[in-house]
Specification:
Two copies of one chain form a homodimer. Chain A is of the alpha/beta class. Chain A has a single domain, classed as P-loop containing nucleotide triphosphate hydrolases (Rossmann fold, 3-Layer(aba) Sandwich). Chain A is 41% helix and 20% strand. Chain A has seven helices and nine strands; from the N terminus they run E-H-E-E-E-H-E-E-H-E-H-E-H-H-E-H. Chain A has helices spanning 19-29, 58-66, 85-93, 104-113, 127-135, 142-157, 171-187; strands at 8-12, 33-34, 37-39, 53-55, 70-76, 79-84, 98-101, 118-123, 164-167. In chain A, strands 2-7-1-8-9 form a five-stranded parallel sheet, sandwiched between helices. In chain A, strands 4-3-6-5 form a four-stranded mixed sheet. In chain A, a hairpin with a 2-residue loop joins strand 5 (70-76) and strand 6 (79-84). Chain A is globular and about 55 Å long.
Chain lengths: 199, 199
């Protein structure tokens, strides 16, 4: 019997909406493969190649760009970051669901490359709350905070390109909703395994 | 604050797939209004008007047909059966979800009248199992069973007009899936309450 293709779940949303926390929680609760990104930045102490990131040389990364090896990639200052296509496609082909946690720009590129991926926008409970979260992270200076706020407002508007929006007022509730979305997506008529009904 | 419109859930599928059992289970577990059908047949002992059915005269029923008062209706031998539009629309407007359990012909009419309703097809685990269930009901004669089997095969093919298919191999599992579908539908970007984000 042919194995059924897994579902690609893309968690995205503005910085400060809490997508990272939600993703970590979800990974503890359900059987889904986290998509490991590739980067050209140097590993930090404790980071392991193939666990936090695939650490690549600049040349290798640029070759992979040439060969259409990324579902999405971006250059941030001097470093590249990207989602290796092969890792995601092999996971899905093996019948396992795969989750990507990326920024809204990346999510849109994944939509173009993988139209049957499920895009979930993680939204803060309010713009005020988002601003509080960004301001209270404490690690950035004022100009960096302003840039982040302006970027977050832009990113909120991309919500309408997604399939679902989950408002992150409580992490556990948000996680429950995402679990429900994954179950529902598997019941969609387009994805359903109905061969055994022998019509 | 304006109340949010409820979601219309339409449970359908061939006779013998178990939609009635699933619907009863679901009603015990979640807060959803069962759509009460109207009929012109006489009440059976113990049946209460406005609980099992709205019991109408033939004249009243035909007037309501004229006035577009049904989301779907059908004549079965000498009696009419139908889904009163007003009851469903008032439930949804009050912000409450509403569930309809009807045959596939009725489900298609509801789709035309209420395109944002969510159509869920309850499928048997296999055609063999469906045939066993229809055959073992024990109340019908052979020609009635044959008619039901042929009709069920026809109805299985209508599956592709639905949003979701839930295979009823175990009632509890099927109920969990429908609960997930309802949660996911509420997260759909088209249905989401995002006014409070004050973009």
């Amino acid at each position: 019997m042919a194995s059924k293709e897994g579902i690609l779940i893309v968690l995205s949303g503005p910085s400060g909406a809490g997508k990272g926390t939600i993703c970590k929680s979800l990974l503890k609760e359900i059987d889904i493969q986290y998509s490991i990104s590739a980067t050209t930045r140097k590993p930090r102490p404790g980071e392991v190649d193939g666990r936090e990131y695939f650490f690549l040389t600049k040349e290798k990364f640029e070759n992979m760009i040439e060969e259409n090896g990324f579902l999405e990639w971006a250059r941030v200052y001097d470093n590249y970051y990207g989602t290796p296509r092969k890792f995601v496609e092999e996971t899905l082909s093996a019948g396992k669901d795969c989750i990507l946690e990326i920024d809204p720009q990346g999510a849109q590129k994944v939509r173009e490359n993988k139209p049957d991926g499920v895009l979930i926008f993680i939204a803060p409970p309010s713009m005020q709350e988002l601003e509080n979260r960004i301001t209270n992270r404490g690690t950035e200076d004022i100009s960096e905070i302003k840039k982040r706020l302006s970027c977050a407002r832009e990113e909120m508007l991309s919500m309408y390109n997604y399939d679902y929006v989950v408002i992150n007022d409580q992490v556990e509730k948000a996680v429950e909703k995402i679990k429900a979305i994954i179950i529902a997506e598997k019941c969609k008529i387009q994805r359903s395994k109905i061969d055994n009904l022998c019509l």
